[in-house]
Design a protein that fits this description.
97 residues; mainly alpha; Transferase(Phosphotransferase), domain 1; 59% helix; globular
Length: 97
């Protein structure tokens, strides 16, 4: 989207960012100014390490990585994301009584 091209894959990236924030309580890209944040978004580096992320499953970290994949062609589609093991486990555990 930063390059002026928008499609549904931008939404999947945003879902990855939101999931990251929900699980960590902070954004994946930090900066003191909007320009600094945008530069970090363009580079695309974020961390899934540290004490907080040690308590998160490898599956959810993989989902975040797949959703926030910088290469749009490699990024998950919505259908693929819905079939991801972390999502499938959450859906099935919701309905187990």
């Amino acid at each position: 989207m930063l390059e002026g091209k928008y499609n549904e894959k931008c939404d999947l990236w945003s879902i990855g960012v939101i999931l990251y924030i929900m699980l960590s309580g902070k954004p994946p890209f930090y900066g003191k100014t909007d320009k600094e944040i945008l530069q970090k978004v363009i580079v695309g580096r974020y961390s899934l390490t540290g004490d907080l992320w040690k308590r998160r499953s490898d599956d959810v970290k993989n989902l975040i990585q797949c959703l926030m994949e910088k290469d749009v062609k490699k990024r998950l589609t919505a259908t693929q994301a819905l079939k991801h093991p972390w999502i499938m486990r959450k859906v099935h555990s919701e309905f187990d009584v």
